[in-house]
Structure formats: structure tokens, C-alpha cells
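Hi support team,

I've been running sequence recovery on a batch of backbones for a student project. Most finish fine, but this one hangs at about 90% for roughly twenty minutes before it completes. I'm not sure whether the input is malformed or the queue is just slow. I've pasted the C-alpha cells below so you can try to reproduce it. Let me know if you need the job ID as well.

Thanks,
M.K.
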């Protein structure tokens, strides 16, 4: 895959996502809802694997990070203090010709003249700020006093709960608070499949530190996050680090890196890693009147910590995983004729199904019983899929398309009919190489666990 946009490839990916149950349009039978998506049986497994791996490396495997699961709706005062109510907006432009509402940065420019990307119209309104927060009301009255917003980022509950977490976890600086959860933005123009949605999930870490540690930790977290993407199977060459210019970063940030990925629709942001100074805690301290200071027992000084924030999108990473994994190659059909094979080459640790389990023939009771025994053996450890219908080659293809890295076939040798030495062994097929090896059922679970961990 090159970094050049490839709309045809994207079309194939979108269609595979629907056909195989990764991602569906929300409310599809009613015509859908723009910017909202549902994850099907394979999609939800993929997404859960991503979130669990993030949690594992960012929280569980570290001594210096703890977790939080904050509420989606918060006191409106939070959004006033954070600046979201006044400034969380995108510049919006209307096309007077086709009536499209557009983000000002999505206009196309020809010979120095801005045009509508839909109809080419040049009759455009002036840009005006459009607040991206989704408003709602709490309680029985729908007046100003009942207004709040669906959170546009998960970070604010971490800042607001900073003191409670500090007091209960008794962590010393530097330490972090991590959260995975839903966020909502009333995007002017949701597009590129799930890339820009109105409801999405974030995986955010707020890593609190002393002011003098901020820039070093920014570099540290950028490195960690790049390693994370490689550990889930994203090729380093398709990741790009943008050092955001001072004029383009938030005024309080002393350094921001964007991590971008070569999607088939172009190079776009996956994650931001930002050194936000003490801005967020200071804002909440001022607005709430409550101290958000840290007491340094050695120096006996009190101060408001600074923070470095790696903030990633779950849905964008899922999309990158699917785009990265999608490939077409050639494989022989039942009659030995070469045909196109669609394979999702997920890293085994991300794959929604880890192993397909197939009795060679569905009408041979002993084969079926043995295959079901293997299902019961593996199921407590990993997500497996039992399939007895159709020719074995077809069953392999179906799992290749779902991205299943391993396939186990129970055949007559498993029953020891041809060679007693092969009793209770199965063939283990690897998705990418299509190579097969003979393994003992008793060793299967350990062998697979080491490959999918
Ligand atoms: N707390 C910082 C923050 O929210 P952001 O750059 O606005 O920063 C962080 O968002 C990440 O959340 C993005 O890099 C992206 O992965 C994801 N994200 C933001 N808006 C999104 C949208 N409309 N649809 C899907 N993901 C989105």
C-alpha cells in the first residue's frame, strides 16, 4: 500500500466491513444517521482487543499509571472552565448554490478562489464559528439551568478528579491517570467512514509531572506511543510524526506531536501527544475554588502539576488496523485453480477470532465430537469459531477474510485411523503463509496462547 490516496481500496474495505460484520451504519433500516456507526460481531471483538491491549500496556503493566471511568455528562461548569463552551468550535461555511454546510478547511481552492467541494460553487458565506459540543438537558425542565453537554473528550473528568485519585492512590509525581470512553462531537461534516464520527471513543492518558519534566516526558510518550502502534501491527513507514508549529498548537501547549497514518483516503491524524503545561488543572482550580495542588513531601512545597497527554482515537485506530490488514493475494481453490484471496492480516493479538476449528467432514460423528472437544478446550482462553459447513478450502477462505490467524482441522489422522502415532494430533494452518503443521491437541492451547498474547 502506498501513501497515495486509493479510493477503490477504501471502497473494498468499507464493503468488507459490512459483508463480514465489522461495522454497520447506525440505524441503517431507517436510512442511517450521519456520523454514527455500530460495530458488528467481528468489529466489537477487534475494538475490545485494541482497548484491552492499550489498558494492559498503559495501565496494568506500569506502576505509575492508574485508571478512571468518568461519567459522560458533567456539571456545565466543567465545560465553561475548560474553555470548551466558548471556544470548542470549527469554522463553518455555507455554499449558497447547493446549500451544503462545510468546514472552512475543507473548501477547495482553484486559481486562488475558494470553491465548494460538492458542486464547485463559488458563492460561499463568510466563515463563522460552530460549536462542536452536543447539547442536552438534565431533568424535567428544558431551560438554560438544565443545559449540559455530552463530553467532547474524556480528559476533563481526569482533571476534575485529579485530587480524589491522588489522595486515594497515593501516587507520587510523575504519575498518570488513564481513561477509555465515549466522546461526542457535532462534526460539521462527518466523513471517511468512521474516521470523523460524531460519536467515538478515546483512549487518553494524562501524565502529571513537574514543570521541568514536561518536555522530556513529551519525547518519552511520543516514543512509547509509536512503539504501541508497531506492537499492534501498524507498519512504522505508514506512521508519520508531525511536530505541530507553535502558531498551530493550543496557546497553552509547549509542544505537540500529531501521529498520522497513511489511510487509503490520505494521511490523517491517529493521535495527538501534547504537553499541556498546568493549564487544565489551573483552570479548574480557579473556577471551582478548590485546591488541585500537589504537596511535595521532600521539599515541603505545594504546586499545580503540569501534564503530558497522549490522546488516541479507538475508532480511528480500528480503522487503521483494518486498512493495514486488508490484502489480496492468490491461492488455489478446491480444483487447484488460482483465485483471488482476500485476507485481513491482523496481528494475532488484535485478530477478532484467534482460531477457526473445523472437522474435515460434518457427517462423521467422531470428527465433529473431537472438534467440539477442542472448542471447549480453547474457548476459556481465546475467541474461537467452529465451522463445519462447506468444503474445507471455503472454510479457510472465510476465516482468512475475517482475519483469523490460525485454523485447526480435525481429520482421520486425529482419530488414529491411518497411523496410531498421529492419534490426537491436528493440522494447524497459519493464515498468511497458509503453511500447515501437525500438533498434539494437548499442546495446542499453550502454543496458540504464546502466538496471540
Ligand atoms: N483531549 C485531547 C483531545 O481530545 P483531539 O485531538 O481533539 O484531542 C484526540 O482528539 C483523538 O481523538 C484524535 O487524535 C482522534 O484519534 C480522536 N478523534 C477526535 N475527533 C474524532 C472524531 N470526530 N471521530 C473519530 N475520532 C476522533
Amino acid at each position: 500500500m502506498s501513501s497515495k490516496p486509493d479510493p477503490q481500496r477504501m471502497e473494498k474495505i468499507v464493503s468488507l466491513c459490512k459483508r463480514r460484520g465489522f461495522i454497520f451504519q447506525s440505524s441503517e433500516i431507517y436510512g442511517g444517521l450521519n456520523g454514527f456507526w455500530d460495530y458488528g460481531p467481528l468489529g466489537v471483538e477487534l475494538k475490545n482487543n485494541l482497548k484491552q491491549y492499550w489498558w494492559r500496556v498503559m495501565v496494568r503493566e506500569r506502576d505509575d499509571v492508574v485508571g478512571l471511568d468518568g461519567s459522560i455528562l458533567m456539571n456545565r461548569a466543567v465545560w465553561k472552565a475548560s474553555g470548551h463552551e466558548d471556544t470548542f468550535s470549527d469554522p463553518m461555511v455555507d455554499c449558497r448554490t447547493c446549500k451544503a454546510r462545510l468546514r472552512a478547511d475543507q473548501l477547495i481552492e482553484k486559481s486562488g478562489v475558494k470553491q465548494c467541494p460538492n458542486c464547485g460553487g463559488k458563492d460561499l458565506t463568510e466563515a463563522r464559528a460552530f460549536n462542536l459540543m452536543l447539547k442536552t438537558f438534565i431533568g424535567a425542565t428544558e431551560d438554560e439551568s438544565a443545559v449540559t453537554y455530552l463530553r467532547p473528550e474524556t480528559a476533563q473528568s481526569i482533571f476534575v478528579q485529579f485530587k480524589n485519585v491522588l489522595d486515594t492512590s497515593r501516587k507520587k509525581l510523575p504519575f498518570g491517570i488513564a481513561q477509555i470512553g465515549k466522546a461526542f462531537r457535532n462534526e460539521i461534516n462527518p466523513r471517511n467512514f468512521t474516521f470523523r464520527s460524531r460519536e467515538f471513543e478515546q483512549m487518553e492518558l494524562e501524565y502529571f509531572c513537574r514543570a521541568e519534566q514536561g518536555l522530556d516526558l513529551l519525547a518519552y510518550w511520543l516514543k512509547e506511543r509509536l512503539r504501541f502502534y508497531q506492537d499492534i501491527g501498524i507498519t512504522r513507514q505508514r506512521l508519520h510524526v508531525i511536530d505541530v508549529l507553535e502558531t498551530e498548537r493550543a496557546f497553552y501547549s509547549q509542544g505537540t506531536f500529531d501521529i498520522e497514518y497513511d489511510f487509503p483516503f490520505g494521511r490523517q491524524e491517529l493521535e495527538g501527544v501534547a504537553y499541556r503545561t498546568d493549564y487544565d488543572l489551573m483552570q479548574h482550580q480557579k473556577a471551582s475554588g478548590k485546591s488541585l495542588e500537589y504537596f511535595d513531601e521532600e521539599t515541603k512545597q505545594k504546586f499545580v502539576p503540569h501534564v503530558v497527554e497522549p490522546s488516541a482515537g479507538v475508532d480511528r485506530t480500528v480503522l487503521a488496523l483494518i486498512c493495514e490488514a486488508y490484502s489480496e493475494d492468490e491461492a488455489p481453490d478446491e480444483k487447484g485453480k488460482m483465485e483471488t484471496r482476500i485476507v485481513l492480516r491482523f496481528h494475532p493479538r488484535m485478530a477478532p477470532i484467534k482460531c477457526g476449528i473445523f472437522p474435515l467432514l460434518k457427517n462423521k460423528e467422531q470428527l465433529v465430537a473431537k472438534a467440539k472437544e477442542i472448542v471447549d478446550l480453547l474457548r476459556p482462553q481465546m475467541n474461537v469459531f467452529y465451522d463445519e459447513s462447506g468444503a474445507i478450502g471455503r472454510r479457510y477462505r472465510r476465516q482468512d477474510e475475517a482475519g483469523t490467524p490460525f485454523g485447526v482441522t480435525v481429520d482421520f489422522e486425529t482419530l488414529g485411523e491411518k497411523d496410531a502415532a498421529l492419534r490426537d494430533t491436528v493440522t494447524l494452518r497459519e493464515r498468511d503463509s497458509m503453511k500447515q503443521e501437525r500438533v498434539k491437541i494437548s499442546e495446542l492451547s499453550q502454543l496458540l496462547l504464546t502466538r496471540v498474547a
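--
Follow-up from support: It reproduced on our side and the slowdown came from queue contention, not your input. The pocket of glycyl-adenosine-5'-phosphate is lined by residues 153, 155, 185, 187, 196-197, 200, 202, 204, 269-272, 311-313, 315-316 (CB under 6 Å). No action needed from you.
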